[in-house]
Amino acid sequence: MDTPDPLTETLALIASAPESASALTLYALACTLEHQKAGCLFKLTKLFDLPADHRPLAYGLMELLAAGEVGTQRWTDAKSGMDELIRGTPRRSV
Questions:
Q1: Long-range contacts, stretch 11-16, CB < 8 angstroms, 24+ apart
Q2: pLDDT score of 28
Q3: Which of 32, 47, 61, 88 has the smallest number of Cβ neighbours within 10 A?
Q4: How far apart are CA 81 and CA 49, in angstroms?
Q5: What's the farthest any 2 CA atoms get from each other in the chain?
Q6: On the CB side of 29, how many CA atoms lie within 13 Å of its CA?
């Protein structure tokens, strides 16, 4: 059985709906995981904003931190894609 890749799946989820709560929450988590010296401060109650089927992506991203993959070329490439998708989304005026 193939293990899903949380980076690829997170990038695909963000691409499909960059303004969604799931996309923004997972993006915030990915950004936070890059700040290890600051303790990767992510408010875990933000996981409540994720539907149950998206929470495994958050856990997968955290597992990549534990495995030492944050900051690798693969991570950096995926994170750059996330940055472009989130920042490239036109903001709606209220």
A1: 11/78, 11/81, 11/82, 11/85, 13/54, 13/57, 14/82, 14/85, 14/86, 15/81, 15/85
A2: 95
A3: 88
A4: 22
A5: 46
A6: 30
Structure confidence by residue, pLDDT tens digits, 13-53 = 999 999 999 999 999 999 999 998 777 888 889 999 899 99
Q: Rounded CA gap, 77 and 75, in Å?
A: 5
Spell out the residues 6+ positions from residue 29 whose beta carbon is closer than 8 angstroms to its own. 42, 46, 58, 61, 62
For the chain, give the mean pLDDT.
89
The Cα 58–Cα 45 span in angstroms is: 12
